[in-house]
Amino acid sequence: MRARTDSDTQDDIHDGPQAETTGPTGAAGRTEAAAATEQADDADATDDDADAATDDDTDDEHGPEDARRARWTAIGTGALLTLAGLAASLMRLTGSAPALVPAAYALGAAVCALAALLGSRGRTRRALWLLIAGVMVMAIGDQAD
């Protein structure tokens, strides 16, 4: 909704009711000046909506610092989860757990290592999804234990 400023109301005061009765009228009984003002207001409202849409688009853009941070996050998290999966796999391999358990931990660790590799190459979205998948595979091994 659009509020009128003081300069907009001054035009209405100067035009006043005399302009409506003496000036040429449009189809709805308004003056041509009033109709032009309404068209200009509608055009401004449309431009404001377009500006709002482009402002939302600029929020989606990320700078190089954000990309670097996401890449390091994917690399670090992938490496940490790979080491955790390998350690859990080795611990379960020496115990009395079924063969599925260390295999699930090892497979989850391999998926996380692949995610770390993709993260180092800048494919952070795929890397983060692979990290989720790797942790889920490790969770299956944990549930089977």
SSE layout:
Blueprint: H1 6-22, H2 32-59, H3 64-94, H4 100-120, H5 124-144
Helix pairs in contact: 3-4, 3-5, 4-5
Describe this structure in words.
The protein is mainly alpha-helical. The protein is 81% helix and 0% strand. The chain has 5 helices and no strands. Helix 3 packs antiparallel against helix 4. The radius of gyration is 33 Å and the shape is elongated. The two termini are 61 Å apart. Residues 53-59 have low confidence and may be disordered.
Main beta sheet, described? none
Shape: elongated
- Helix fraction bin: over 70%
SSE run: HHHHH
Proportion of residues in β-strands: under 5%
Number of β-strand runs? 0
Briefly note the structural class of the backbone: mainly alpha
What are the defining features of this structure?
5 helices; mainly alpha; 145 residues
In short:
Helix content is 81%, strand content 0%. The chain is elongated, with a radius of gyration of 33 Å. It has helices at 6-22, 32-59, 64-94, 100-120, 124-144.
